[in-house]
Amino acid sequence: MDFTAATERFVAAHFPGATTVIVGGSTARGERTASSDIDLLLIGEELFTGDQTSAASTHAFEDEVFEVFAYTAAGFAEWAQRGVDQHRPVIVHMLVEGCVVREGAELDELREHWADVLEAGPELTEVEAVFRRYVITDVLDDLRDAADPLERHVLASVLFERTAELMLLAEGQWLGTGKWLPRRLRVLETDRVEALSAPLLAGDYGTLANRVQAELDRAGGRMQDGFVR
């Protein structure tokens, strides 16, 4: 599919006020699958009426599904900063790394600013680091004590996610949800990632617990006594 032409037709039909149009996700990377949609970032001052500055919506168009993230300049700045604060700057990655279909006057300045933010990486404060260690300690103890197979499976999945996030943030790397979490993890040392992921895949929860404890020790150790919410 010529996604550029299809995107231009979609934008002309539904969002004619967009001055910057960027395709992100698997389409931009050339990694589409049969179920892939087209992630679309739109920026423009004439996108909305009234005081609205942002919208996220899904549209079927010409046998494709478009996932649209639309913003005024102010709306983009607000939501981009929220993503950065949460360590998951999805629309910032779209802006900086996506395929430009329509280039507005605002694009160069936006890309320059937010590229610097991405390059700097997330800031893990001491308060957040302590909180994350506390959560991991709590779930780790629950996993070691659990006897019910379903409980153990759920706890192991939660523990893997929380530990992976702490590993990434401690190394100055952005987070991801769903399929993006293991993809983000691959920027770390292969042996270290394998040590955490292999027991999860094998259902070896005892070994997983030991690997989590090792990562917890690396981050400063267990956190329970003296923790204040």
From TrEMBL:
SUPFAM superfamilies: Nucleotidyltransferase (SSF81301)
Sequence ranges assigned to domain Polymerase nucleotidyl transferase in this UniProt record: 11-50
Sample GO molecular function, one term: nucleotidyltransferase activity
Domain of life: Bacteria
Pfam families to which the protein is assigned, alphabetical: NTP_transf_2 (PF01909)
Entry keywords, A to Z: Transferase
Keyword Protease appears in the UniProt entry: no
Signal peptide positions (record): none
Entries under CDD domains matching the protein: NT_KNTase_like (cd05403)
The keyword Protein transport is annotated on this UniProt entry: no
Protein name per Swiss-Prot or TrEMBL: Nucleotidyltransferase domain-containing protein
Source organism (scientific name): Microbacterium bovistercoris
Lineage, broadest ranks: Bacteria, Bacillati, Actinomycetota, Actinomycetes, Micrococcales
